[in-house]
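Supplementary Methods S3. Input chains for the assembly prediction are listed below.
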Amino acid sequence: MRTILVANPKGGSGKTTLSTNLAGYFANLGKRVMLADLDRQQSSAGWLARRPAVLPTIHGWSGGDSRKAIAELRPHWLIMDSPAGMHGDKLSNALKRAELVVVPVQPSAFDMAATRDFIELLRAEKSVRKEKSYVAMIGMRVDARTRAADDLELFLDSAGFPVLTFLRDTQAYVQAAGDGISLFDLTPGRVVRDMEQWKPLLDWLKE
Ligand SMILES: Nc1ncnc2c1ncn2[C@@H]1O[C@H](COP(=O)(O)OP(=O)(O)OP(=O)(O)O)[C@@H](O)[C@H]1O
Ligand SMILES: [Mg+2]
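Predicted structure tokens for the full assembly:
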């Protein structure tokens, strides 16, 4: 089993959007996927409840004995969607379990400021220092033509972790969230640009 933690204490940075789309991607590859919702708001659990039954199955986990659930399902991929403000033991425990940590950041001064401390925290974390967990940064809702996008790129480059991709701001993510689907459940022709943007992230996960 490979485990991905999607984390950033900044609210609304794109954690659930990334988590649900990652789950959709692996499910469409025919993998057994568990989407663990660590957030009391239960956004990814709600997304899963909306997911049409005809689409590739994603197994949810939103509480109870996770070890038992994992032993029963034996997922290929465990994706953990985490809440805003996660810190302390909760964060350390989630990091200990995750081989891969994906951090979405939006192009705004507020988001970058809030993420700066988190990056320090990640750098100090034992599992990251010992290379048991690998961290990567993702630009989220980025319009490449803006100054904010340049600022975000500079900021992410200075974080000391790989910067994998910049996902654009598009209603495709908003509509998919409402329909319980991922971009990977759509006809590829409708999301060509987005698939190109996802590729470096997907390649990194498969490495
Ligand atoms: N690339 C994108 N394009 C357009 N809208 C997006 C994109 N990414 C995220 N959003 C929207 O931004 C909002 C916040 O995203 P999301 O819920 O994924 O963030 P979050 O980090 O999980 O938030 P929270 O901290 O509250 O859990 C949502 O309405 C989502 O649909
Ligand atoms: Mg969320």
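The chain has one domain: 2-206. The chain has a mean pLDDT of 96.
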